[in-house]
Amino acid sequence: MSVTWPTRLDEAVDAAAAPAATLLAGGTDLAVEVNAGRRRPVAVVALRRVPELRDLEITPAEVVVGAGMTFSAIAAELAAAVPALAAAARTVGSPQIRNAGTVGGNIVTASPAGDTLPVLAALDASVELRSAAGTRTVPLRELITGVKRTAIRPGEVLVRIRVPPRRGAQQFLKVGTRNAMVISLASAALVVDEERRTVACGLGSVGPVPVRPAEAEAFIAGEIDWERLTVPEGAVARFADLAARAARPITDHRATAEYRHHAVAVLVGRALRRSIDVVPA
Amino acid sequence: MGSSTVAVCRPSEIGADVRRPDGVPKTRGAFAFASDLSVEGMLFAKTLRSPHPHARIVSVDVAGALAVPGVRAVVTASDVPGAPTFGLEHRDQPVFASDVVRYQGEPVAAVAADDPATAVAAAAAIDVTYDVLEPVVDPEAALVGPALHPDGNVFRHLAIRHGDPDASGDVVVEGTYEVGMQDQAFMGPESGLAVPADDGGVHLHIATQWLHADRDQIAACLGLPPELVHLTLAGVGGAFGGREDVSLQIHLCLLALRTGRPVKMVYSRDESFLGHVHRHPARMWYRHHATRSGDLVKVEARVLLDGGAYASSSGAVVANAACFAPGPYRVPNAVVDGYAVRTHNPPCGAMRGFGAVQVCFGHEAQMDKLAAALGMDPVELRLRNALRTGDRLVTGQVVTGAAPVAEVIRAAVAHPLPPSLDDGLPMMARPGGAGMTADVADLRRGLGLAVGFKNICFSEGFDDSVAARLRLELGASATPVATVHVATAEVGQGFVTLAEQIAREELGPLDVVLADADTGVGSAGSTSASRQTWMSGGAVKQVCEQARRALVDRAAGIWGCAAAELVWLDGEVVWEATAQRMALAEILAGGPVEERCVHRHRPTTPLDAGGQGDAHLSFMFVAHRAVVDVDPGLGLVRVVQIATGQDVGRALNPLQVVGQIEGGTAQGVGLAVMEEIVLDHGQVRNPSFTDYLIPTALDAPDVAITLIEEPEPGAPYGAKGVGEPPAISSGPAVLAAIRDATGLELPRAPARPDDIALRA
Ligand SMILES: Cc1cc2nc3c(=O)[nH]c(=O)nc-3n(C[C@H](O)[C@H](O)[C@H](O)COP(=O)(O)OP(=O)(O)OC[C@H]3O[C@@H](n4cnc5c(N)ncnc54)[C@H](O)[C@@H]3O)c2cc1C
After folding, report:
1. Number of Cβ within a 10 Å radius of residue B343
2. Of B442, B690, B696, the CB nearest to A180
3. Which domains does chain B have, with CATH numbers?
């Protein structure tokens, strides 16, 4: 096994072009795969010394997050600009995992339980992919195609994540069977945009890819009094129910589909209550 | 024994918070665990395991493995030179399956190769043809169904008939309860290094709980006399019962003898989950009878333990479950049936609490039900029926030692409650923790109490003994050194600290060296049953007392006086008549003093056909009060506080007692809310720390502790064991608190989010 340590983005893209190249960021997914014997990389390209991958740009027009930013860095630096992403980052693993694991790795792994995915889906984020052939930008919703499957092509490096501006409350809630260091049984992100008068919702661990409950989103946007930022009590349960209906959870050794369905509705309802004042109907 | 010449003065070591000698090395990563063992030229071994819980083996072809470059040996059942089977109580478990496999993960072959990756590849190249059969995974079905093994399916049925079986009470409550399969989840996976010896024997360095039981089983299977099998304890990364059975020991020794080279093996995490026994899952039916004023009249119970494929220590576990089924209460009449049966589930055996844990979930839920039926305060009901010294257990045994049951209950409930929910709670401190799922308005607080008890040391007439040797001599700078040699497995409990404390307590200030625990000295029994403070601690005390007498005799010889004129005071011999003193170093100038002893506790007796007899030596009592916050919407629980009163006899090292209580409490909390081996038709679905969840720091509650110190007659220094009680009633207290918060019945542990949220 060979390891290369590019120190510039163009070097990394060159190295990634080698047919057998395996990109390594924090290694918190890749090393697990290797230890389990499921992957045997022959030519590792270690990305940690590439400074461009850790760039963060916060402007009124967009927030651009380097794919190599760790969860710890995101939790610290995005708490104000993209609170739901920072909240999701705080729920990941343990301090050690948050210090090593990156948002880029989370996206490329594309696990249904990847905690940043429902947030990025709710934010309508897109990712910038660069290869020897050039650069392309793909919406996250198109990038993640299935359980641990993406539309990334061989030789492509995920460089940065583009998050459009949203003005309003954001939430991320995640259910696990213990209080920390746990794979989510269900999660929900909620992103309110007072300017466009939208509510976006991303559901995690309840389908092969992050779920956007379009009907629920449209319903609640219509129920909210956008001048006062209130919503009638009666609409909360309906919103939660509609959102849960969009979920397609499975039963496995971690939880039943019935529980996941139930939990996601609870999470969505609570996320809304935390974001918008609920008033008697 | 002429001990009147010897008087212990000024106890100073016993009762002190002496720090562990291995504490700093362990925290710094400098301590060598068994998995760190290494020797020049060693080979690496890998076990091939059955993927099926039940199958007939049609053929095993090892040619593919032998063809892998770097492979040095492959062994299967036909290579076992001695007894084909092993086992702690009954030798019913094959070293390697030959004709049939009875659980998922049962070893079929083992490989030794130049490096770990080659060993893994070679094991995968062994071609086993299985005729897959339907597994029997329901213990009720196994109880009445066809035999899954030539020895039958019932490991043991213990019937306890006490008092009047037809007695009945005015108030009757009934319930059925279930406990899932818990794992010991020790951090250090099974590891060992076997080195062939020049005499044709083998030397095994191994992380275990009981060196001599391992040795005897290994020797029998290797067809060697026990003297040719030498074991030395390697660094143990936790045990909790899971290292009492043989796992890789025989495989390693076979491969070392076959190749003539040292062979090392370390289980991977998933293999570890398949490679050791678990806590028995239990199904329990109870019916309690009481008078209207709340006096227990009769307890009826049926306890069914799933022992899995092989016997392990099922017989002793079910005996405990049956004996302790009523809880630590005065019960004049009892009809209890305990069964441990064979299934195609993973084998179950010893785990902290050993049968007393499962039934505690049952008897304590029943006591709460009874209190509700009587309209009585649950604390009052328990106090009213609490066992006292002089009371009779349902086995007919009279409790002669300390039985401060009322005291542990009062101590547990006397602790101040944590701040209420109205005072607000930081997000991270709520159920759901880092997931930030709950607002305070979503939460309900609950309170629960549970009381438990268990035996100390081995029971039912077992010849329980510990051999000890002591050598006293002058060390490098002419200062006295005591070398203590016992085969006691230090598995984290702190015997290494205690042995030093006891030696200094008995012999005065001197350097104490604990020789490697090995089979070069007689057996110390298992580090289990909360017994090593009593047994190995007692052995060290006894051998030091012998040495003290020898020192006094020697001083008498030097002075030319009678030993009876001398006393032992603060590490010196004093001739009171002349006010002369002789320091230990002076006495040892004449040469070393060597002593050996075998320490035994008072004998116990077997149980008769009605489950009656003085089967147990002594008992430990404990009470836990749990405070929990529950999010009924999501079914998530946060254990806020566990307050406990624990009967310890005497705390020889309070700091270590607190360590045992905090750790055992976390294990109890784990069983109540998250820990379970998930089985699907005999297949383990979660053999990893990703999916077998144990409490993190954010799940561990505050623990408020009161030690009840009522010295136990006959126990060295009056100390009872302390390791198991924290794991007995802590879980049942948590479950009771969740019931209190939600109003749900929750008859099963662990209470999973589904169990709460979908029923709330
Ligand atoms: C103990 C533990 C706990 C965990 N807990 C959580 C949790 O709570 N929530 C959660 O979501 N995840 C969790 N994970 C999973 C993991 O930490 C995350 O998925 C993490 O984001 C992976 O990032 P990484 O930088 O470590 O990726 P790596 O392991 O380095 O890489 C993962 C994959 O992404 C590819 N890759 C990485 N960077 C790039 C790039 N820039 N361009 C193209 N491809 C790239 C790699 O080639 C590889 O295929 C946990 C893992 C462990 C071991």
Report:
1. 30
2. B696
3. 23-31+465-600 (3.30.365.10), 39-134+200-267 (3.90.1170.50), 401-457+617-760 (3.30.365.10)
